[in-house]
Each structure stands twice: as structure tokens, then as C-alpha cells.
Amino acid sequence: MAISTRDEGKKVNSDINVTPMVDVMLVLLIIFMVVTPMLNNKVNVELPQATAAVVMEDANKEDSVVVAVTRDGKTYLGGDQVVPDSLGEKISARLENKTDKRVYFRGDQRANYGTVMTAIDGIRAAGVSQLGMLTDKPLM
For the whole prediction, is pTM greater than 0.70? Predict the structure, then answer.
């Protein structure tokens, strides 16, 4: 009884087959080339051209509504101090007969963020369509 052996197992094929890898890379390249133009999700928007001086002139008008929050947490509507909870009602009363429902807001640089957001929520609750944030001119 003889044992049969195969000679083909003596040689080990150590060559790397790169054809499948090249195929996968080409498929990925094609996918990325097709998908990349679709990733451009920027929206072209024309922003209004305005200067700070024009906005300040509008805010300094006699009938403009200006809300201010000081660094010690006090809220003012025009020159009158108001409770932040009643701010929305008082702004609604001032804007009742106006067609332009624009309010200007001044917030102190060191004012509490929560107080500022409460005042802005009161302004939005009054049905204000435009809220202008006033700042100082930068020192040059």
C-alpha cells in the first residue's frame, strides 16, 4: 500500500493579487467623483448693505422702541424701568398703532446672559417682526 502525495502543495504561491484591490479603489473613486458635487450645500444669499450710522439714526428717533438691559440686571423700555415679565405687554401696547414693528435692543457687555435672553423672549412674545441689536462703534 503506497501513500499517494501531491506535488502541487510543495510550491507556495506568495504573489500578492492586487487586481481586487485596484477594482475596489476604482469603484470608490467613481463614487466619490459622483457624490462630491452634491455635497456643495452652500446657499447664495444677498445680504442687505447697511452702515451702523443708519441704524443708529433709526434707533434715535423719537417714536422708536428701545429695550435696554444693564449690567446689574435692570430692564428698561425707553427711559422707564420695567419688570421683565411685563415687557411683552408693554411693547405690544407701544407697537399697537405702528405698521413697522421694529424694536432695538441694547445689552450691556457684562449683563447676565439669562436676563438678556429673558428680555429678548419678552420682545419676541410681543409679536415683534424685526429686532435690531445695537452696539458701540469699535475704537480705532
Answer: no
What domains are defined for the chain? 52-134 (3.30.420.270)
CA distance linking residue 17 with residue 14, whole number of Å: 9
Both ends of the chain: CA-CA distance in Å? 104
What three-state secondary structure class fits 65? strand
In tens digits, the chain (140 residues) has pLDDT values of: 566 666 666 677 777 888 999 999 999 999 998 888 777 544 443 334 445 555 555 666 767 888 888 888 888 888 888 898 888 899 998 888 887 788 888 888 778 889 889 999 999 888 887 888 876 655 45
